[in-house]
Amino acid sequence: MAVKVLIPTPLQQLTNNQATVECEGSNVSEMIDSLESSCPGIKARICDDRGNLRRFVNFYVNSEDIRFLEGAGTKLQDGDEVSIIPAIAGG
């Protein structure tokens, strides 16, 4: 099932400067693996060495924060939109 992934500007160097990428996957974890296969190196930027989502990278499925859903196990349906948003610190 195809989902649309919105790529933040700092990661677009890994997607041939594309702001959106189509990926496959029945959940966020599978979608990340699909994204890695088409854009090598991106998983290391959004996941830690164990494959867990990085703490300061936020994921939204159809504008809903996956931390309040099922995390990386959040189910995806055909046509869903996944946003990857790096947290920004400052003051």
Short description:
This protein is of the alpha+beta class.
CATH architecture: Roll
> What value does the average pLDDT take?
95
Quote the CATH topology: Ubiquitin-like (UB roll)
Q: Tell me the fraction of residues in β-strands, as a range.
A: 25-35%
H and E order: EEHHEEE
Task: List low-pLDDT spans.
Answer: none
Please give the number of β-strands: 5
Oligomer: single chain
Distance between the terminal alpha carbons, to the nearest Å? 41 Å
What's the number of domains? 1
Which of globular, elongated, flat, extended, rod-shaped describes the shape?
Answer: globular
Summarize the amount of helix as a percent range.
10-25%
User: Sheet bearing the most strands, described?
Assistant: 5 strands, mixed
Taking Cα atoms only, what radius of gyration do you get, to the nearest Å? 12 Å
- CATH superfamily annotation: Beta-grasp domain
Give a description of the structure.
This protein has 91 residues and is α+β, with helices and mostly antiparallel strands. It has one domain (2-86): Beta-grasp domain (Ubiquitin-like (UB roll), Roll). The protein is 18% helix and 25% strand. The protein contains two helices and five strands; from the N terminus they run ββααβββ. The chain has helices spanning 28-38, 42-46; strands at 2-6, 20-24, 57-61, 64-65, 81-86. The chain has a five-stranded mixed sheet, with helices on one face. Strand 3 (57-61) and strand 4 (64-65) form a beta hairpin. The radius of gyration is 12 Å and the shape is globular. The N and C termini lie far apart (41 Å). The model has no long low-confidence stretch (mean pLDDT 95).
